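@here heads up, posting the sequence + SMILES for the zinc ion run so it's all in one place. Ping me if the SMILES looks off, I pulled it from an old spreadsheet.
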Amino acid sequence: MSKPLLWSLAVLLAGCGTAPNVQPPDCGPDSFGVSRTLEVTPDTGPIVPLLGPKEVILTFDDGPHRSRTVDVLNVLASQCVTATFFVQGNHSRRHPAIVRAIVENGHSVGGHSMTHRNLALLPLEESVKDALDGIAATDSALGEVGATRLFRFPFVASTPELSGVLNGAGLIEIGVTVDGKDWTGNGAGEIVEIIMAGLEAGPGRGTVLLHDPFDHSERATRLLLRRLKEEGYEIVALRVAEDD
Ligand SMILES: [Zn+2]
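bot reply: prediction finished. Complex structure tokens:
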């Protein structure tokens, strides 16, 4: 076999990826678990008012990462909880097997644009294209496993016009209530303190933002789950309602 052909084959195999080894959920009596599922549609609107006191939805942005996303999935499985992963289209293209593993292990996947540019600063047409290209890339990775309808703007930055166009295209925008600021170089312990302080100072419920591609993502997730459980919070799963 020629070298270029071997190389092409290696790239192809790396792109498709074998199914990542995610541990099955440990849903024993001591596990945290999910308290309920919140189903949303493009007509739902803001979701925080739909949450009760101390109800939290876990979200992870900017993945999937070739190894760290699976580490986070394993931490979530160890406590039998589910989360929503807002993935970039360009990363989905690189790691389609991990995108599928997210859904196959009971989590939700949302779009997070193709390239993670600030869509609020681009011409409308370009912003819409980047958002929908990201959805298409992730849908292509998912194949028959599912379709992406949840969406979070990079930097949570939108305009009313842009939000309206994407909502009209059937997407469900999900915001951020508490940002763990894990992208600033904070350690896992600091990240958890920021989240707990944010929840206590704010509505005491809502969507919590972490990222799965960082080296401290696994540890921050583990510490956060322990702390949320100790403090009496409940984890709510986020799902797109099935069409009638
Ligand atoms: Zn992001």
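MO: The longest strand covers residues 34-40.
MO: One more: Residues 61-62, 112, 116, 154 surround zinc ion (CB under 6 Å).
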